[in-house]
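Reviewer comment 2.1 asked that we show a complete input and output for one of the modelled complexes. We chose the ETK case, as it is the one discussed in the main text.
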Amino acid sequence: RSHHYPFPMPDPGQWAKHFPACAGNMQSPININTETTIFSPQLRPIQLSGYSLPASQMLALKNNGHTVVLKLPESLAIAGGYAQQYRAVQLHLHWGSPSEPGSEHTVDHKRFAGELHVVHYNTKYENFKAAVTQPDGLAVLGVFLEVGPRENPYYQQILEHLHSIQGEDDEVFVPGFNIAGLLPDNLHLYFHYNGSLTTPPCHESVKWTVFNQTVMLSKEQMSKLVSSLQTDDNRLLMNNFRQDQSLHRRWVLASFE
Ligand SMILES: NS(=O)(=O)c1c(F)c(F)c(SCCc2ccc(C(=O)O)cc2)c(F)c1NC1CCCCCCC1
Ligand SMILES: [Zn+2]
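Response of the prediction step:
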């Protein structure tokens, strides 16, 4: 088990006992109410650099008992859309069950089948551990997953390895690929707000970008995602999303009208 978290991870209602930030007023995820988002024309398209990795570059893919995490090299960077430079740390997924959707953010209370998070840290800090507690420390790109008619070749590069990491803390190395293929084609339609990690320690250090365009996986791919991984005592790892948190005094910006 990871040395970070009290295990078994207490249920969300108890998180604040061990991690007071989880009871803060800038928590994530949130419901995005499109009636009250603020159109902000100054929000520039998100630009990525170094996201296309050669197959010769092997990446660690781990079942950490809460999600599947792909560790990313710092050579991947956000080059536009944020005021400061952010470099990649890892990406991971949130999902539901065979019968229920499992995205973390919702839009007008619609929950999508799943959600990808690509986590980056602000390079003005030494490393991500130093950044993770700072208000401008992290930038997470969120992408909604939906079920569509065709297999998604980019997600397949992750999903085809899930059978090798069924057990908690199992890890395998996978060949690099174009990580940008996991994101929508259109990176200039997005919501933007200040929030937090959606797991303990819930630090309020995330500048969130949630893309308006979704990505499509096949039914078989989604079913593989929700039925491959196990958590403690060999239970299926499902519904690994946090309930939506109050917005309090925050506004959600939109890069489009
Ligand atoms: N949505 S999110 O970004 O808040 C998020 C989650 F919701 C997550 F659920 C997770 S996984 C749960 C936390 C965890 C557990 C074990 C290990 C380990 O064994 O290495 C590591 C982490 C998870 F890893 C992340 N992202 C991590 C948050 C924890 C550490 C900070 C920087 C990396 C991003
Ligand atoms: Zn996440």
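The first helix runs from residue 15 to 18. We note this here for comparison with the apo prediction described in Section 3.2.
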